# Entry
Amino acid sequence: MANRGYVTAAYGHKVYLEQALCLLLSYKLQGDETPFTLVTDEGLASLCKELDYNKWFDKIIVLGNDKLHHFEGKLHAALQTPYDDSIYFDSDCILIKEPETLWKELSLSPFCVPGGIYTGGTYAKMNMTEWLKHNQINYLPVFNAGVFRYDTEGKKIVAEALTIIQNHETYRLPSADGGLNEQVALGIAMAKNNMMPLSYYNDLHFSFFNAKSVLKLDIYNKTCKFKKERTWREPFIFHYTPLYKAGYYYSASRKILERELNKLRKHYHINKIEFFKPTLRDKLALIKRGRFLIDGR
# Structure
């Protein structure tokens, strides 16, 4: 078996360090002892040591703030992998069931991620026919880059995507909430190397973004279910963005998530996790949207 392992990143705020630990613990709970590397900044590396979290991670790699910022940071982090075969996770993910299934399903190409493709129409406010022609590609793989697997050859896709971000004006790369869109950069790199995303035939990884139901979650019983795009999803990896953000502070689903993560942390004798709390400005915005104190999401 190739030298394989998991990689995640935490930088900028302690919330992301706590998320990274929850991600790792969700694997420990299922008996998965695959090595786990954390890529972080100097400030969180110090906090990690202070909180005695170092003992949980197999390796901690520290990068400077010139690399760990916005979405670009996750590409720098992924490139730091010490493994020949890696799965990268955003820190706001947790394992729900069968970790070995991820390795099996995500091993069909050197860089593997579930998704679809665009060959025309509009995406990210772009005229795709014109945009694809500009970038000299025939299609754009579209996916959630919160989870992807890559081997030594696939690592070149990550490196090429980073170059694309650094030359974003040339590629007319769109922005996203938090910086330049690293998912589109990865998609361009995949298309240039004739790689396709994995079909959504299995609910390997879904985020709660734009979910249409209250979350059903029980980590101990390996249950996660929510409705998204008119379909009930039961992912192997639950990407719980944006529930930890201040705008979801009064959300029913957020309370369910916090309950489950804190049960997990209590099992390992670790203090409760605290997500972002709303400032006065956030509260006023929630009141304006009718989501203050009660939020049915």
About this structure: The longest strand covers residues 4-10. The CA atoms of residues 175 and 272 lie 34 Å apart. DSSP finds ten helices and 18 strands in the chain.
